Amino acid sequence: MNGASIKVKGYCRCGRVEFEVRTKPLITMACHCTGCQRMTSSAFSLSSLFPSAAFSIKSGDPVIGGLHGSTRHFFCGYCMSWLFTRPESMDEFVNVRSTMLEDSRSYRPFIETCTDEKLEWAFTGAEHSFGKFPPMDEFPELIRKFSESRG
Predict the structure, then answer these.
(1) pLDDT band per the 50, 70, 90 thresholds, residue 4
(2) Helix (H, G, I), strand (E, B) or coil at 106
(3) Which three-class secondary structure state does DSSP give residue 77?
(4) How far apart (Å, rounded) are the C-alpha atoms in residues 120 and 80?
(5) Can you tell me the distance from the alpha carbon of 146 to that of 27, in angstroms, rounded to the nearest whole number?
(6) All structural domains of the chain
(7) Fewer CB within a 10 Å sphere, N or C end of the chain?
Protein backbone atom coordinates (compact mmCIF):
# COMPACT_ATOMS: atom_id res chain seq x y z
CA MET A 1 0.00 0.00 0.00
CA ASN A 2 1.31 3.45 -0.89
CA GLY A 3 1.96 5.57 2.23
CA ALA A 4 0.33 8.58 0.53
CA SER A 5 -3.01 6.78 0.25
CA ILE A 6 -3.23 5.79 3.92
CA LYS A 7 -5.80 7.49 6.11
CA VAL A 8 -6.53 5.97 9.51
CA LYS A 9 -8.94 7.48 12.00
CA GLY A 10 -8.67 7.34 15.74
CA TYR A 11 -11.15 8.13 18.49
CA CYS A 12 -11.37 8.48 22.22
CA ARG A 13 -13.70 6.13 24.08
CA CYS A 14 -16.71 8.46 23.92
CA GLY A 15 -16.02 9.63 20.34
CA ARG A 16 -15.88 13.35 21.14
CA VAL A 17 -12.27 13.59 19.97
CA GLU A 18 -11.48 12.25 16.53
CA PHE A 19 -8.08 12.38 14.88
CA GLU A 20 -6.46 11.05 11.75
CA VAL A 21 -3.04 9.82 10.62
CA ARG A 22 -2.13 9.85 6.95
CA THR A 23 0.86 7.53 6.85
CA LYS A 24 2.14 4.26 8.24
CA PRO A 25 3.74 4.46 11.69
CA LEU A 26 7.49 4.96 11.87
CA ILE A 27 7.62 2.40 14.69
CA THR A 28 5.28 0.73 17.19
CA MET A 29 6.05 0.38 20.88
CA ALA A 30 5.00 -0.88 24.28
CA CYS A 31 6.25 0.92 27.39
CA HIS A 32 6.40 -0.90 30.72
CA CYS A 33 7.40 2.07 32.90
CA THR A 34 5.40 2.55 36.09
CA GLY A 35 4.19 5.93 34.79
CA CYS A 36 2.55 4.25 31.78
CA GLN A 37 1.21 1.49 34.01
CA ARG A 38 -0.51 4.10 36.17
CA MET A 39 -1.74 6.21 33.25
CA THR A 40 -3.33 3.18 31.55
CA SER A 41 -4.33 1.26 34.68
CA SER A 42 -2.69 -1.66 32.91
CA ALA A 43 0.64 -3.46 32.55
CA PHE A 44 1.98 -1.20 29.76
CA SER A 45 1.01 1.44 27.22
CA LEU A 46 0.93 0.86 23.46
CA SER A 47 1.90 3.56 21.00
CA SER A 48 2.76 4.23 17.38
CA LEU A 49 5.10 7.04 16.35
CA PHE A 50 4.06 9.23 13.42
CA PRO A 51 5.43 12.40 11.83
CA SER A 52 3.48 15.36 13.20
CA ALA A 53 2.74 16.54 9.66
CA ALA A 54 0.70 13.34 9.07
CA PHE A 55 -1.43 13.78 12.22
CA SER A 56 -4.47 16.01 12.65
CA ILE A 57 -7.35 16.50 15.06
CA LYS A 58 -10.65 16.25 13.14
CA SER A 59 -13.07 17.04 15.96
CA GLY A 60 -12.99 17.76 19.65
CA ASP A 61 -10.44 19.54 21.76
CA PRO A 62 -7.87 17.37 23.56
CA VAL A 63 -6.65 18.55 26.96
CA ILE A 64 -3.26 18.10 28.59
CA GLY A 65 -3.16 15.56 31.42
CA GLY A 66 -0.62 13.22 32.98
CA LEU A 67 2.65 15.04 32.31
CA HIS A 68 2.29 18.81 31.93
CA GLY A 69 5.93 19.73 31.27
CA SER A 70 8.08 19.45 28.16
CA THR A 71 6.52 16.08 27.32
CA ARG A 72 2.76 16.57 27.07
CA HIS A 73 0.11 13.86 27.25
CA PHE A 74 -3.23 14.65 25.57
CA PHE A 75 -6.60 13.27 26.67
CA CYS A 76 -10.27 13.66 25.83
CA GLY A 77 -11.55 16.18 28.38
CA TYR A 78 -14.81 14.25 28.75
CA CYS A 79 -13.98 10.52 28.90
CA MET A 80 -10.32 11.07 29.83
CA SER A 81 -8.97 8.60 27.25
CA TRP A 82 -5.21 9.01 26.78
CA LEU A 83 -4.93 9.78 23.05
CA PHE A 84 -1.41 10.88 22.17
CA THR A 85 1.84 12.34 23.46
CA ARG A 86 4.02 15.15 22.20
CA PRO A 87 7.54 14.01 23.25
CA GLU A 88 9.95 16.51 24.75
CA SER A 89 12.08 18.37 22.16
CA MET A 90 10.55 16.31 19.33
CA ASP A 91 7.82 18.50 17.86
CA GLU A 92 8.22 16.76 14.51
CA PHE A 93 6.70 13.57 16.00
CA VAL A 94 3.50 12.52 17.73
CA ASN A 95 3.21 9.30 19.72
CA VAL A 96 -0.37 8.03 19.28
CA ARG A 97 -1.90 5.43 21.61
CA SER A 98 -2.27 2.49 19.23
CA THR A 99 -5.49 1.23 20.83
CA MET A 100 -7.26 4.45 19.82
CA LEU A 101 -6.68 3.77 16.12
CA GLU A 102 -9.08 1.87 13.88
CA ASP A 103 -7.87 -1.70 13.40
CA SER A 104 -5.66 -1.37 16.48
CA ARG A 105 -4.78 -5.08 16.22
CA SER A 106 -2.46 -4.30 13.33
CA TYR A 107 -0.22 -2.09 15.51
CA ARG A 108 1.64 -4.90 17.27
CA PRO A 109 4.60 -3.48 19.24
CA PHE A 110 7.97 -3.81 17.49
CA ILE A 111 9.93 -2.64 20.53
CA GLU A 112 9.20 -2.68 24.23
CA THR A 113 10.85 -0.25 26.60
CA CYS A 114 11.46 0.04 30.34
CA THR A 115 11.33 -3.71 30.85
CA ASP A 116 13.29 -3.19 34.09
CA GLU A 117 9.94 -1.97 35.50
CA LYS A 118 7.67 -4.48 33.79
CA LEU A 119 5.27 -6.70 35.65
CA GLU A 120 6.75 -10.19 35.47
CA TRP A 121 3.67 -11.73 33.85
CA ALA A 122 3.25 -9.02 31.15
CA PHE A 123 4.17 -10.16 27.64
CA THR A 124 3.98 -8.09 24.44
CA GLY A 125 5.66 -10.23 21.80
CA ALA A 126 7.82 -7.27 20.74
CA GLU A 127 10.83 -8.14 18.60
CA HIS A 128 13.22 -5.87 20.55
CA SER A 129 13.34 -5.24 24.30
CA PHE A 130 15.11 -2.54 26.28
CA GLY A 131 15.53 -2.36 30.05
CA LYS A 132 15.28 1.43 29.87
CA PHE A 133 14.19 3.77 27.08
CA PRO A 134 16.60 3.23 24.17
CA PRO A 135 19.06 6.04 23.43
CA MET A 136 17.78 8.44 20.77
CA ASP A 137 20.70 7.63 18.49
CA GLU A 138 19.43 4.02 18.22
CA PHE A 139 16.03 5.06 16.84
CA PRO A 140 17.05 5.58 13.18
CA GLU A 141 18.25 1.96 13.02
CA LEU A 142 15.15 0.67 14.88
CA ILE A 143 12.89 2.62 12.52
CA ARG A 144 14.74 1.18 9.53
CA LYS A 145 14.37 -2.36 10.88
CA PHE A 146 10.66 -1.77 11.60
CA SER A 147 10.10 -0.52 8.05
CA GLU A 148 11.90 -3.50 6.56
CA SER A 149 9.94 -5.93 8.73
CA ARG A 150 6.63 -4.46 7.57
CA GLY A 151 7.51 -4.44 3.87
Answers:
(1) low
(2) helix
(3) coil
(4) 28
(5) 6
(6) 3-144 (3.90.1590.10)
(7) C
